[in-house]
Amino acid sequence: MADLHWKRIVVKVGSALIAPHKQGCSSHYLLGIAQFIANCRANGCEVVLVSSGSVAAGWHRFNGIDTPSVSVKKAMAAAGQADMMATWDKLFDFPTAQLLVTHGDLRNRERYISIKNTIFSLLEHGLLPIINENDAVTTDKLKVGDNDNLSAMVAAAADADALIICSDVKGLYTKNPNIHDDAKLIKQVSDINDNIYSMAGGATSDVGTGGMRTKIEAAEKAISHGIETVIVNGFDGDTFTQLLKGQNPGTLFTPFEHPMQEHLHWMTHTSQAQGELIVENDFDGNLDQHTPLTSDDVVAVTGNFSVGDTVLVRKGDGTKLAKARSNYSSCLLNFIAEQEDRDFANDVQQKTGAIISDKNIAILE
After folding, report:
1. Which residues contribute to the annotated binding site for ATP?
2. For residue 340, what are the domain limits?
3. 43: which of 172, 184, 193, 307 is 20 to 30 A away, CA to CA?
């Protein structure tokens, strides 16, 4: 009998589990994961699956290519995504749904809300959402780049209680366990700091794009939203037996006691600055909730952005102050900044709305 204390979880599965040898999808390691997901659902725990593997799954269809170009990788992703979904679908006796996203979707507030609503609707109607980055169409500018961080963004969007990241090792070790025999597994982490990141150099696969560091990054995103995060060995079937018993088979990252509010978390960890608003080095404004920046505050504007885009507020010496949502485009702001008539500039009123972010600035729209 399961002893789950979660109501909703996100499970992240990587390419090495989907297509271990780049010879198409294999159910060898996926059977245990699928059974775990089925058991969770049977015990009242909703599940969202973030599944990498489209490129690895489609690789074998492009014979004789050892180092594919970007366009061929996209073609591999297009071919492999269908195979990957078919493989997952065969492993479940309940309906699944595919949701392909890019970072461009997630960092746009309107599309982010749309993704949230889609996930909630699928769960409400008993479907298993299977989410992947849309590798067939995304570009360097629009991609997350690894599904570890994507899974944390999805966990936040889904209001999950827990994020389970399947790796090729049991969790975070003091040293790379593939090299050092005296490496010790860290069972619990309550504070992700530089020391934790320094331990995250090893345990990567030649199939996936993420290593241990990206898993720590994902954990940091998730726990700041109050989401318990566990890095586990997805190749070991006993991992999922332990999870169902409420045990910790890997490394547990404990969530913040006081999580970031939803919009602040999105601005900090998902939204991406499209430009910068630069203030004087002696700027001493209090960047607090709903604090506006006026045309008098900003001395320069860099980058190209539109109304509603996220921008970084920094001093001329490079000191980062906060993130903000711009109420005007960079084109108009540059025009205002060039005006000598400050009365005209002031008539345009405030340039930005809610200043939200860096790590300790909690501001909402």
Report:
1. 12, 167-168, 209-215
2. 273-356
3. 172
